[in-house]
Specification:
- This protein is α/β, with parallel strands linked by helices and about 290 residues long.
- The protein has a single domain, classed as Alpha-Beta Barrel (TIM Barrel).
- Helices cover about 45% and strands about 15% of the residues.
- An 8-stranded parallel beta sheet has the order 8-7-6-5-4-3-10-9. A two-stranded antiparallel sheet has the order 1-2.
- α5 (about 130-140) links the parallel β6 (about 120-125) and β7 (about 145).
- α2 packs across α3, α4 (about 110-120) runs parallel beside α5 (about 130-140) and α10 packs parallel to α11 (about 260-275).
- The two termini are about 30 Å apart.
- Mean pLDDT is about 95; it is low at about 1-5.
Amino acid sequence: MSASVRGVSPLEIRDVRFVWGERTYLMGIINATPDSFSGDGKPHSEDAIAHALEQRAAGADMLDIGAESTRPGHEPIDREEELRRLIPVVRAVRERAPGAAISVDTFKADVFRAAVRAGGDMLNSIWGLDDALLAAVVECDVAVAIMHNKRVAIYEGDVVDEVLRYLDDQAQRAVRAGVRPERVILDPGIGFGKLPEHNLAVLGALGRVAGLGFPTLLGASRKSTIGKLTGKPAEQRAFGTAATIALAVAAGIDIVRVHDVAEMRDVVAVADAIVRGWRPSDWSERL
């Protein structure tokens, strides 16, 4: 069931209009950090800025900028270091791409507020919405991507059921606080607080995630479960990632968060044409 059928209104951010259910949107990843799991970290601001602009030119509908690695075993950084890495990148991308939709990948409320002042448009939180983050989202009047996560990958019951309960609870809480439904984007959190079999179970149930009735996001790009299945290092997992994206489109997922924007743009174009009836503007029946 697509989001358009569920009746969720479009989301407008800067020059981008996200019409849920019409096609699948791409969120390009920009890691302003030296220790990204995927090997694409950009610790120098100018490199991160250039990468963001490249991602947009390659077809990203949204740019997701983060400054703290969240890979397994990562070293947490304090607020000051995150701001030092993040704010110059957000500010420069906003100046050089005024119409771009910028997502800010953080779970610190004060860091998010500073990023919004620098030009950020929405929050992408890997730890859902605690009271402080929810207050920041309401105060800044922005959209939010809420991800399921868990500190220890232990599930007493079915992993999919637990993920769905968490996401639905978080979404309803955000709506009660005043966040409009089209601004509440749900992410099942592939690779976060889940063992490989958990990830595969969630990937096999993406239609149930979409069925919660809110816009949805999937971040499976280059994840370790793909590496376990293919035997490939992170930088060689584009084809494995493509499989998850095609399945996500078929399940009704609205946004895919990816490292390889140009390649995944082709994947969603073909999958959207088959599943959603999307066609490019210059489409013709002539061979």
